[in-house]
TrEMBL record:
Gene3D superfamilies associated with the record: q2cbj1_9rhob like domain
Entry superkingdom: Bacteria
Pfam families: 2OG-FeII_Oxy_3
Name the record gives this protein: 2OG-Fe(II) oxygenase
Every Fe2OG dioxygenase domain range: 112-215
Length: 800
């Protein structure tokens, strides 16, 4: 079983924990160090109060970093600071003493013997009574920085303990009064300096830097063969699923993601600078990988967990039921503070904070994403975005035993219980079988994969390129739909042309959206169609276009503007550009025709007019791009539409008129626009010639039967069609009044409806409004204007 392999692997790496701690301490006789400070002179040790006060006269208020900023806030950090350029360290024995301490620290922290530590002075700090530094994490100021070394100078003081924490454990260090006290900890450990209660506490802080001194060829120890066996098993057994519904997987997992315990920055992620147990575990895994024919890289993972969780018992007040927002002091509050933590009605019961004392019940959901990884050859790394599947994850330390960097709690919301979301940053060793290396990396870095394929093609290694490209098929479809991937369409297309295998080429270009297509792709598009045939091209365009009628973004309207130029370039290119241009135009037309039909069916005039007018420009672009056959089909369809289609056709003609140069000379579009213009002119002339409505003519066209065969609609139609009846008083029960309302509103009729709430049933009063006349007047004016414009500027005139 694959699960057993992962479990065993995690256990095999468990004992590495004993090989390193996150923090360590050492004492050295005070006379090992001579320390001089500019403006003060050599500091006599143990340090006494007058000297400490003299140091303060030379110091500044210490600052601290938050994000990219450096801040000064004595509520967070209150201590005096002297910069390292003003400090000189010496002493006959100092270098050797420090060297010994660093060697001990290296060993205690579990860094491999192939690594050496160096310490660089960072600051001299003086803490007087009441001064402190709240919990924080030190920033890694240097690529090779792995931690901090705090050297406490001996002095009489109380308080001022240095508390260091990692993975739920914490150690408190007190400084010696007579000796130098060295405390070292990894840079990802949170630590604090508790307030000094008497005397002065003086520390020299140093950055700990790690450097490789010997190659890592020695055996990292441990049951390597066992580990290698687990890897082989993991990569041969079918991947198991988290939930048992759905068909079982038949293929093995693509990779193994072994989560480490410490946090790392992108810069600090390096095989030689791993911390504590991580170093041993990663070294063993890497060696096992070598034996099992696998490749290993380091990665950074973002983990999110959602737990079913409850607040600790103490958070319930004496009612035994009610939970309060942390700061709530309102005696009469019955927990409303939680519903409304900001005093805004309806604010959600969601808040962030430290919920480490909450009790975790069940894990509802977890999600792991890799955001960065190093290259297999160890040269740098790259940003990636790769969700990790359940069957790929393995860890010796569970997430819940680590400290999340963010937590959010949401109280009971009906559908869900109380949930606690926790986010962690973890590093990981990611492994995959060497033969599947290309696909394993490609899933995270599609651009890199395309580059590699092109490289093989350029080098004439066609067979290899084909084998690798085929291995992308299982997951390549998830790629390409985002805007960010559009720029890589050109790369995918070029590789597709080069491969010479129709199915694989189709798979490579399939995930992109049509918006990614631009004029510059025309030569390769035409070449691909020439190579793989018309059916291939039609299939590819269908995929790029997506399902007709599916939601399409505003981007598509913008993209249609570029369609004529794209099609012109396609037709001019070598190969078979027409094979791509034709289905592109046809698909665009099918989608637009569908929208046209939808808008024509809308009764509310203003809405319909606006909707149809918006389709004008896209329609013009499609006609501009069409070949003569498609242009004819389009014109024939448009001619067959009702008069309301003029609300789209005139805007289309106007759009075409605005950019006559977009139509290539001799293009079928010229004839199509002329035919349409002639058609519109004919229709408008008929509209304008209609007799003006007589002042006493209130007749409207019938709204038609509603389809449910009700007895009301015929009566409504009789009223609407009547020349003389302006008002209808109609006693109707509520549901029936409702039906008439909706019939009138849906059709956008110039009829007002009110209900007179007297008697039973109430009376629905329908009144034809002046819009019966005004709409017709407006329509006539519009028709006259359009007709005048057509006669003056329309394409029919321009042809000459
Ligand atoms: O003074 C100390 O012991 C530690 C100070 C510290 O945490 C820092 O400078 O970042
Ligand atoms: Fe610190």
């Amino acid at each position: 079983m694959a699960y057993a392999a992962r479990k065993r692997l995690a256990e095999l790496l468990e004992d590495a924990e004993r090989e390193g701690d996150f923090s360590t301490r050492a004492e050295v006789p005070a006379d090992a160090l001579r320390i001089r400070v500019d403006g003060v002179g050599e500091l006599p040790l143990p340090l006494r109060a007058p000297v400490a006060r003299k140091l303060i006269t030379q110091a500044r208020q210490a600052r601290f970093g938050r994000g990219a900023e450096t801040l000064s806030d004595t509520g967070v950090r209150d201590t005096w600071e002297i910069t390292p350029d003003r400090i000189t360290l010496s002493g006959p024995d100092w270098d050797r003493a420090l060297g010994d301490v660093l060697d001990g620290v290296r060993h205690a922290l579990g860094l491999p013997p192939t690594t050496a530590l160096r310490a660089e002075p960072h600051a001299l700090l003086v803490y007087g009574k009441g001064q402190f530094f709240l919990p924080h994490q030190d920033s890694e100021k240097d690529d090779s920085m792995v931690g901090t070394l705090v050297v406490s100078l001996p002095s009489h003081h109380s308080g001022g303990e240095l508390v260091v924490e990692h993975a739920g454990r914490s150690v408190t260090h007190r400084a010696s009064r007579h000796q130098l006290t060295f405390v070292a900890f990894y840079a990802d450990c949170r630590h604090e300096v508790r307030p000094v209660t008497s005397g002065y506490r003086v520390t020299l802080t140093m950055n700990l830097l790690a450097e490789r001194v010997r190659p890592t060829d020695e055996d990292a120890g441990g049951p390597l063969a066992d580990l290698a066996h687990c890897l082989t098993e993991h990569f041969t057994a079918p991947a198991e699923q988290q939930y048992s519904y759905g068909p079982p997987e038949t293929t093995p997992p693509n990779r193994l993601v072994y989560l480490l315990d410490h946090e790392y920055t992108q810069r600090g992620l390096d095989w030689d600078r791993l911390k504590g147990a991580d170093a041993t575990r990663a070294a063993r895994l890497r060696q096992a990988a070598g034996q099992a024919g696998c490749e290993a890289v380091l990665a950074l993972a973002e983990v999110q967990e959602t737990w079913d969780a409850v607040p600790p018992y103490e958070h319930y007040d004496h009612y035994g039921e009610v939970e309060h927002f942390d700061d709530c002091e309102d005696d009469e509050c019955e927990g409303e503070c939680l519903l409304d933590p900001d005093g805004e009605p309806g604010a959600e019961r969601r808040r962030s904070g430290d919920f480490s004392d909450y009790e975790l019940n069940d894990l509802i959901e977890d999600e792991i994403n890799l955001g960065w990884w190093t290259r297999p050859d160890g040269t740098g790394g790259e940003r990636i975005s790769l969700p990790v599947a359940y069957a790929e994850v393995c860890a010796t330390t569970e997430n819940k035993d680590l400290t999340p960097y963010r937590s959010e709690y949401e109280g009971y919301m009906g559908n869900y219980g109380n949930t606690l979301d926790r986010w962690y940053r973890r590093a990981a060793v990611v492994l995959w079988p060497r033969q599947r290396s290309f696909a394993a990396r490609a899933q995270a870095d599609s651009e890199g994969a395309l580059r590699e394929l092109q490289g093989h093609l350029d080098a004439g290694a066609l067979d290899q390129a084909l084998t690798l490209a085929r291995s992308l098929a299982p997951f390549w479809g998830q790629y390409g739909s985002g805007e960010a991937t559009a720029p890589h369409f050109a790369d995918a297309l070029r590789v597709a042309v080069g491969l010479g295998e129709a199915d694989t080429a189709a798979m490579l270009v399939a995930p992109f959206r049509v918006e990614a297509l631009a004029e510059e792709h025309a030569p390769d598009l035409a070449r691909a169609a020439g190579r793989y045939g018309r059916a291939w091209a039609r299939g590819a365009v269908g995929g790029w276009y997506g399902t007709v009628g599916a939601y399409t973004s505003a981007d598509r309207t913008a993209w249609l503007e570029s369609l004529p130029a794209l099609c012109t370039a396609l037709r001019a290119a070598d190969g078979d550009g027409e094979a791509v241009a034709t289905p592109l135009v046809e698909s665009a037309w099918q989608a637009t025709r569908q929208q046209l039909a939808n808008w024509l069916g809308v009764g509310r005039e203003k809405e319909r007019q606006a909707g149809l007018a918006r389709l004008g420009a896209p329609l013009a672009h499609i006609l501009q791009a069409a070949d003569s056959g498609t242009a004819d089909t389009i014109v024939t369809t448009l001619r067959g539409l009702p008069d309301t289609a003029l609300e789209c056709l005139i805007p289309a003609l106007r759009a075409a008129g605005r950019q006559p140069r977009a139509i290539p000379e001799g293009a079928p579009a010229i004839g199509a626009f002329q035919a349409l213009a002639g058609h519109c002119e004919e229709r408008l002339t008929r509209v304008v010639a209609r007799p003006v409505r007589a002042a006493d003519d209130w007749s409207l066209s019938p709204a038609g039967a509603c389809g449910s065969g009700c007895d009301l609609c015929p009566d409504l139609d009789a009223f609407l069609s009547s020349r003389s009846r302006k008002v209808l008083e109609w006693p109707l029960a509520q549901a029936r009044r409702q039906h008439i309302h909706s019939r009138i509103d849906l059709a956008g009729l110039p009829v007002s409806h009110t209900t007179r709430r007297q008697g039973r049933p109430y009376t629905l009063v329908l009144t034809k409004t002046d819009a019966v006349f005004s709409r017709e007047r407006e329509a006539r004016v519009r028709a006259e204007t359009d007709l005048a414009w057509l006669r003056e500027n329309g394409p029919a005139r321009q042809s000459g």
